Amino acid sequence: PTTDAPGPQVIAAMRDYSLVELRRSGSGTFHVNQALTVPAGRQLDVQGDVVVDEGVTLRVDGTMDIAGNLTNHGTTIVTSGDTLIVGGQTYSDGSLEITATGHFRMSGKGIRSLGSMTVAGRIDGAGSVVIEKGSFSMTDGEIRSSNGKAALKVEEGKNVSFARGSIVTMSPAGAAGQW
User: Fold this and answer.
1) H-helix segments, 28-167
2) Of 53, 95, 122, 159, which residue is least crowded by CB atoms under 10 Å?
3) Do 33 and 55 contact (CB within 8 A), yes or no?
4) Which element (helix H / strand E) includes 96?
């Protein structure tokens, strides 16, 4: 539930199992300002943008569906095959990790990473993963894009490593190009 009062608002949708309060600014942005874990078997839907503050960890063991953008200044770890779904752009200058059982679904514009990114699980959807700066590592992972654009673009990666895995770009008609 949220309040309709102007200014900072609090959503306590998960308070029943003592996990988090997401603080909402007047702009419809929810700030994760303390450690948040979405437990296995649970789902958190956020109708707006989410910002993970610096020094804070967001861990998705269940399902988290963000209708807007995700901005990660802290650490975001996706361990669940149940998925982290982002409807808008994901921007990360922190640490983004998709573990072997993790699934990150891009429903929007994709992921722009300037921090560190580790992929051992699956990233898929309509966007592209763009590594602008920072580090990128993939072991036994998969990145799959369905919009006909490059699934992975490395613009200025300082430390880029691949050890097993696949990168697949699907055209809108369904034809695949795989590396």
Assistant:
1) none
2) 159
3) no
4) strand 95-98
**Mind listing the pLDDT tens digit for each residue in 87-137?**
889 999 999 999 988 888 887 678 888 889 888 888 887 778 888 888 888
End-to-end CA, the chain: 46
Contact 78, 95 (CB under 8 A): no
State pTM to two decimals: 0.80
Residue 10, SS3 per DSSP:
strand
The position carrying tokens 């998705």 is 60
Q: Which two tokens stand for residue 140?
A: 């036994």
For residue 121, which of 61, 81, 76 has the smallest C-alpha distance?
81
Per the listing, tokens 């695949």 go with: 176
Yes or no: say if 44 and 38 are a contact pair by the CB < 8 Å rule.
yes
Give, in degrees to the nearest 5, the angle at Cα 176 between 67 and 172: 50
Residue with tokens 């894009």: 145
Q: Are 36 and 59 in contact (CB under 8 A)?
A: yes
Rounded Cα gap, residues 65 and 50, in angstroms: 10
Show the tokens assigned to 36: 């948040």
Handedness of CA 48, 129, 132, 75 (dihedral sign): positive
